[in-house]
Amino acid sequence: MRTFARRASLVVLFFGTALSIVVSMRRPSLSREWDEDVRVLAGVGIDDEGLVTLTDIRDWSYARDAVVAKRYFDATYDPGRIVDLWMYEQVLDRTGLIAHTFLVFEFDQSYGANRYLGLSVETRREIGEEYSLLGGVMRAFEVTHIWATEQDLVTRRVQYLDYPLTRRRLDIPEEYHARIFVKMARETAELASTPRWYNTAANNCTSSLIRYVNESEPGAIPGHYSWVFTGKVDDYLESLGYLDRGYALSVTREYLAEHDIR
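The structure corresponding to this sequence follows.
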């Protein structure tokens, strides 16, 4: 029995080592047959005055189970005119441990229809490929930044995919808003020339956003298990005082219909 156990351990060790070597040899790419929703990369330009120009901002329209229109537009933003920052959470499993999060920057009213600009850090899936937690660890997906209107990001998930969302206001110092926005934009530009792997544990939708905050204010959000179990990040941020305790909006298909949001 002991001999069998030793042999089994050696077999597991061998295949585990071989798998690790194969995974480590994989290299991220910019040239694959991408799913259409993650195919177009936003372009980024930052001028001497700090204004950020984004090209190919996604603004698709959705109905139940259908994409109605596929639009993109270009716009220039002044990071100093961000007036609020919002976080959306999309729970992905029954336990509530795993969730997708994304941010929406609210600019002042002079930006009109373009004042709510979202950033979602996502896996860049190939045609026919589906996300999985294991694949996210095994270098199955490149990471991408989706810059889109708030309406696109929300209605895609709620109306088209039927995932309810929770919207929370981030209660952080205003001077952090511009720093976070610019850091995100710069990394978007880097990803357009230097692809990176998405990693469920180390470089996921939530940990990436937290990293931008910590780069803006070192140590602002200490390490925590919610960086991996992302469905708990709202509780953690609330405990740190970074979420508005008096505001949590549940966005469902019924909510969109009631407010005529399409």
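Helices lie at 2-25, 133-137, 150-160, 174-191, 205-216, 233-239, 253-258.
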